[in-house]
Amino acid sequence: MMQLDNLYQEVILDHYKHPENKGLSTTFDAQVHHINPSCGDEITLNISLEGPVVKAISWDGVGCSISQASVSIMSGLMIGKDLSAAQLIFDNFVQLMQSKGSGKPDETILEDAVSLTGVSQYPARIKCALLGWMAFKDASVQAQKKN
Amino acid sequence: MSLDVERIRKDFPIFTRTIRDGKKLIYLDSGATSQKPQVVIDAEIDFYKLHNAAAHRGAHQLAEEATELFEAARETVAAFLGADSQEIVFTKGATESLNLLAYAFTNAEPGSRFAIGPEHTIVVSEMEHHANLIPWQQLAKRSGAALKWFSVTPDGRLDESNIDSLITEKTKIVAITQQSNVLGTIVNLDQIIKKAHAVGAVVIVDACQSVPHVAVNARKLGADFLTFSGHKALGPTGVGVLWGSYELLNELPPFLFGGSMIENVTMTDATWAQAPKKFEAGVPNMAQVVGLGAALKYLQNIGMDAIHKHEEELTSYLLTELGKIEGIAIVGPLDSSMRGGIVSFTVEGIHPHDLGQYLDSLGIAVRTGHHCAWPLTRALGVPATTRASMYLYNDFSDLDALVGGVKDAKKYFGQ
């Protein structure tokens, strides 16, 4: 069961059972709805900016532990960051997911998101991990256009 | 066991490999695609090694041999379906067959039997695979016809209670599955076909999940068109079959235009060959067609009735054993009558993707998700399910492994 434990780290299962920032806010600068058409996972994500800073992220969704934990971790990481720092984290994470298991995650940048490193060994699950992150990217671009 | 599974497995080379660090392969995803016996692999290899040439083209010996093998496969398919070989159209899969039909309706001359417009309706069901929904949904949009559908009862059967208001004088097409790829439900089509024909509608049957598993006689069934994919019936990918009654096939306009489907061509016009050639433009997937012929012969040697009985035994056992696990909900009929070898289920607190991943770590292959029937899973109120689908090479030990795996997954994910 060693290899599977790589994928389902305790941090992931914790976030899955006790997600952060879940429950949609009533106000937001942008709201997006992303779907993973191959499996049916869905997420709605709200973002509020204050100048260049991510002031709030809230979300709701249905999906597997990887997709739900990943959006929970992402929201915790991004809130309070300015958009250029958020972009760096985003790029780092996407690169890690595409590393086919060979990526060396930078814990100072990715923090809890390093727990998702094992996902990169399972090609079918990478899109699960990226669902919430792509929603964040989309929402932040839309919110910037609006502000 | 009505089949000697141990002996059958020896015919399938894939069962000699292992999964995830040396684990035995437990393949329960035949509803997605079936594994291939050596005779099918050999038939494809032999075609390429010994007989490769463009069928129905060329005057040389290889072209003759390729043509003979290709047409012999057509006869095998015809015999398998209780049909005439002229009624067998080779496509690249059931998806193409259904799109072929939908576009042929679009191409029909005004006033012909197939002409469709805003005054018509198309009837499908909520349990259709996307391949037998979207072509009709989009034909409805193109033509202005109204799309109507049969619902599904809470226990996963087709709700035929409103058949008289669904199938009316306006109905042009009734497109329906013979067996649900999610629920396992076998649909009794007799009443629907009778009603559809009484109002002059064309009946199209998606037999992807039935033809590989149970004896289907296309003529006796009484539908107008029927399709299945080769790769779900032990055959290669890239080949499917469209059966149509010869009269209708000859009336139906073509969909794909090109080589070999013509009678005569000038710079400004063309006329069509007789069916089935009219629907087989371009050099066909010859090796795959020949492989499909070998697959159906293999199935016939074992016997479709024996295969069906075997799958009934497995299904009944799996329904019982899964039902004993706390937190399991079977999505589909709970009794094994009028039910094929597909069992979809959910486990409380474990998302199907996570369950599928866990089972994979034990060497067990299942399908997870909405199974290309998103409207159905939505109607049933489940975002996704885990699906085990069985075939002639599965036995009780495979199902014991699955049931054990589900129990272990519950522990692993803390449920």
Automatic annotation (TrEMBL), chain A:
GO terms for biological process: iron-sulfur cluster assembly. GO terms for molecular function: iron ion binding; iron-sulfur cluster binding. InterPro entries: NIF_FeS_clus_asmbl_NifU_N. Residues 8-128 form the NIF system FeS cluster assembly NifU N-terminal domain. It holds the Pfam family NifU_N. This is Unannotated protein. It comes from freshwater metagenome. The lineage of its organism: unclassified sequences, metagenomes, ecological metagenomes.
UniProtKB/TrEMBL annotation, chain B:
One of its GO terms (biological process) is cysteine metabolic process. Pfam families: Aminotran_5 (PF00266). InterPro entries: Aminotrans_V_dom (IPR000192), Cys_dSase_SufS (IPR010970), Cysteine_dSase (IPR016454), PyrdxlP-dep_Trfase (IPR015424), PyrdxlP-dep_Trfase_major (IPR015421), PyrdxlP-dep_Trfase_small (IPR015422). The keyword Nucleotide-binding does not apply. Its cofactor is pyridoxal 5'-phosphate. The keyword Transferase applies. It catalyses: (sulfur carrier)-H + L-cysteine = (sulfur carrier)-SH + L-alanine. CDD domains: SufS_like (cd06453). Keywords: Pyridoxal phosphate, Transferase. Transmembrane segments: none annotated. Its EC number is 2.8.1.7. Residues 26-402 form the Aminotransferase class V domain. One of its GO terms (molecular function) is pyridoxal phosphate binding. Gene3D superfamilies: Aspartate Aminotransferase, domain 1, Type I PLP-dependent aspartate aminotransferase-like (Major domain). Belongs to the class-V pyridoxal-phosphate-dependent aminotransferase family. Csd subfamily. This is cysteine desulfurase.
